[in-house]
Write a structure and sequence with these properties.
Number of strands: 5
Order of helices and strands: EHHHHHHEHHEHHEHEH
Helix content: 40-55%
CATH superfamily of the largest domain: HAD superfamily/HAD-like
Largest sheet: 5 strands, parallel
Distance between the termini: 10 Å
Shape: globular
CATH architecture of the largest domain: 3-Layer(aba) Sandwich
Radius of gyration: 18 Å
């Protein structure tokens, strides 16, 4: 029986993207530059998620590359993050698993400093999820150091048996690491696909 459920954030609990709400369609050129040079630059993108560079550094890079002022870019990012929506169906299911079915639940995410300062607070995530592991806080990504972030989460959940743990994630690479530790995984695409599986394997 699954006793601990670990949720990915981006791609599972949330599907919105940085900047979209505030930059499109008016600032299409700026949006494209950011997609190509920030999110399309794996080295820089991963550095941001490891907290090797922070959001202020990213704003400086965008300002230099596009000619936009840092204050404008800071405001745009802040407002776009505040506009990001959770997948309410998946979020409510997580709450149901915790409150009605006694599952231990956690979030593990490769994310940035702004996830801590804005997203968690905006959606009161820490009131639902007793354990939230952000790569930014540990300087490593989920797939690095043999998936050490999963070990940290399991320790914080006080759950030491991967055989009774489930990872819900849209990344095959991440799921494979969890499987090697003995855990169960679900390849997430949509809530509609996950709900019947959850009803059979988690809720009963």
């Amino acid at each position: 029986m699954i006793k601990a459920v670990i949720f990915d954030f981006d791609g599972v609990l949330c599907h919105d993207r940085f900047y979209e709400e505030m930059l499109l369609p008016q600032y299409q050129e700026l949006y494209n530059w950011i997609q190509d040079n920030i999110f399309g630059n794996n080295n820089l993108f991963y550095q941001w998620m490891r907290n090797e560079v922070n959001t202020n550094d990213i704003n400086k890079i965008i300002a230099k590359g596009t000619g936009h002022k840092e204050e404008f870019l800071k405001d745009v990012l802040l407002k776009s993050l505040e506009a990001i929506r959770l997948d309410e169906k998946m979020f409510n299911l997580a709450k149901e698993l915790k409150k009605l079915h006694g599952k231990k639940i956690a979030i593990i995410t490769d994310n940035m400093d702004v996830f801590n300062s804005i997203t968690i607070e905006k959606h009161n995530l820490n009131k639902t999820f007793p354990v939230i592991i952000n790569s930014c806080d540990y300087g490593i990504l989920k797939c690095e150091e043999n998936g050490r972030l999963f070990d940290i989460a399991m320790d914080k959940l006080r759950h030491d048996d991967y055989k009774n743990a489930l990872l819900i994630d849209d990344s095959e690479k991440t799921r494979e690491i969890f499987k090697k530790k003995g855990g169960n995984t679900f390849a997430y695409t949509t809530y509609e696909e996950f709900k019947p599986w959850a009803k059979e394997n988690l809720i009963g």
